[in-house]
Structures are given as structure tokens and as C-alpha cells.
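We treat protein structure as text, and this decision shapes the records that our systems exchange. We quote a single record here, exactly as it is kept in our systems:
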Amino acid sequence: MLSLADAQSRLSDLVSAARGAGADAADALYHGDRSTDVHVRLGALENVDQSEGEEIGLRVFVGQRSASVSASDLAPESLRALAARAVAMAREAPEDRFAGLAPEDRLLCGPAPDLDLDDHIEPAPPALKDRALAAEETARAVAGVTNSEGASASAGRSQIALATSHGFAGGYGASAHSISASMLAERDGQKQRDGAWHWVRHLDALDDAAAIGRLAGDRAVARLGARKVQSGPMPVVFDPRVGGTLVGHLLGAIAGPAIARRTSFLLESFGQQVFAEGVTIIDDPHRIRGLRSRPFDGEGLPTSPGNLIDAGVLTGWMLDSASARQLDLQPTGHAARGVGGPPGVSASNVHVAPGPVSRDALIGGIKRGLYVTELIGQGVNGVTGDYSRGAGGFLIEDGQLAHPVAEITIAGNLKDMFRNLSAANDLEFRYAVNTPTVLVEGMTVAGD
């Protein structure tokens, strides 16, 4: 894997080669990574996976025509041939009046913010094996756990660098450490599975392996005795493990390409009340050690924290340069790309601001409802907002969690769900998209 300095030098040479081959403009992206993953099951090593790779992607523009190519051969002569091939492809491509590099006057200038994403620690396989074994051993010791799907521990590093023909050059590295366990529990002929995992940038922030294992075992056992519930309308509470999926549907609906194609259920909602007044949703690419933190976006624009939803009001769209041109707006620093193809749009670290009440108080006011810990299937229509997904979790009766439930469906429309959403105050930053426990009133539950 190249160092960041070498990667930026290679990108600069590639962009220059593209210009020399006849491109009017170009940008190039480098991505390199290496990782080790150790998986154990029933106290024995099952497999060790080690991988390392690097790729370069080049995008060129000839007038309003463009083409993208990528390669894993980073030898200088191979990259010169890549540049010539990309320019030849662009000359044959159809014109696109919205294509082009990001506006030069909006590029990140000066030093990028230090987000402390890389701890430069790469544990050896024996250390990862010990961590995975500790998680599984603790999980299997939980009363009621009868089998294991295994536990794993991984570590890796990645580096990203970007260079453009109109003056941007930058890069950053990030480390990743994770641990997970998945257990099976059985009672009276019924089997259930559940698990736990944790992923962080710095090793010193990773949860203790035994704690992850114990949580995996406890979750699996808690699901025993699950049954259906009577169908009907009821309030649905989303555990933080699954609450982020609701925010994910919002992010898809406010992405610039969806708005430009007019395929979003929030198409006419710019500046309008989408959530209740007590709901604010923040996108923070500068969170220190954040799982999706980034100092610049996929086009070289600076990133900055901001409210996607401010006191319930939709503040705007997430735009790359192409969708911004289609909508006659300015890009917002949300461009994201891989080495192949043009940029798309992505949020960074997103969270729902905590509400005024505790989780217990949020649940305590519910006479009969559903507490969801698992969602199944992809039954969401991004054009209409219609929502229908399989779910599992626990029945809520008289403000308390009662028996576990399974084989049910929850349904509604995301516009209504957003307006009827309220949040507890138990926000923790454990995922890329984080929510407190959230309550959605008036959903339809299909069971018996």
C-alpha cells in the first residue's frame, strides 16, 4: 500500500498524463487498504482472512463528454496507457451538460482538519484470535445458549487520496477495529439467534471482548418464547440498533440525484416541517474518530457539520456537483465516490439529537405497543414513502417490555412516521448513523 505522499504523487502524474492525452479536465482517486479478520467457532480457529489491495480511478472530461476508468496496476507506464484509454473513451461518450469537476472556487483550501482517524495499530492474528475466543467463550457461558455461529475480531487500515486538474490534492488514512459474536439459544424446541458487534477507529475505544460476548448471549436468550401478536394499529418503539434505518430512508430521500430525477417522496418538502418540532438530525463529518468522518468530500470540497433536519424542518438537499447543476444550486460537500464511475452522494456521521425524556419514560407511557430490535426485508418505496418490513422484538404492555415477538410486519408511510416520531435521551455514538430510542405513533402491526 502506497504512503499518502506517494499516492498523491502518483495521482498528480496520472492527471497530468490525462491532460497531456487531450483531456480538458480530470480527477483521480486512490484507495488502498489492508485488513485481517480472524473467525472462531466452538472454541476453535475457523479461518484467518488477510487482504491487501489498492486501486486508482481516473475520470476525464473532453468538453461535456466524460469517461471513468480504474486499475490496480499502478506502474507509471500502465497509468499513462490508462489515461490515453480514458480520453479515447470520453471522445466517444454522449454529451452531458451537467458533468464536470466541482467548482474551483469551492474547493478545500489550506490544511484539512485532523479528525484523528488512524491509530496506526495493526494487531497480529494471534491477538485477534484471543479477542474472538474471549467473546465467544463468554457468550457460550450464558445460560440458555446452546450453539454458536462464531465470533470474529478484525483490524485494518485504509488510505484515500484525491487530486484534480484544477488544483486540489489531499488524502487521509483511517484505521478500523471490530469484534462481533452471534449465538443460538434453544428452549422447548424453539431456537433463536442474536448477536452483538462493535466497530471503532481506535483500538482503545473498542468494547471489551467479554462484554460483547455477554451481550450477544443475553440477546439470543431474551428472544426465546417469541410469538406473534394480534394485528392492529399501535405505537412502535425502535431500539437504537435499528432506529438508524429510519434515518437512512430520510438520507435517500434528500439525496440530490433522487431529487433531480424526481423520485423522492420528499420532493416538494424543501424548507417544510417534515418531523415534529422536537426532532433535529445532524450530519457531522468532523466528529473526532467518527466512523464516517472525512475532511473533504469525493470532489475535493470541504465538509462541515450541519442540521439536515432543524426542529423538524428539512433544511435542504445533499448535493454533489452534477445534481447541484441539475437543480441550479451549489454542491454541499456530500459527494462520495469509489475508484470507478462518477461521484454519488452520501452523508457522514448522522445522529438524531436526544429528546427530553428517558427511554423508560418513553416506553412507560405506552399501554400496548411494540419494541423493535430487528428488521427484516426491504419493503420501502422511496418514491411514495410506503413502508412495510418484517420485524421482531418485544411486546410492550402497561409501559413494560413483555414477551418477545416474531413473525410480524410493521407498516406505514414514512411521511406520517416522520411526523409522529419522538426521541428519548439515551443517544450513544456506536454506529455511522445513531439514534436514541425512538417512538413512532400510529403504525400498523400485522401478526395473528
About this structure: The first strand starts at residue 25 and ends at 41. The chain has two domains: 4-221, 226-448.
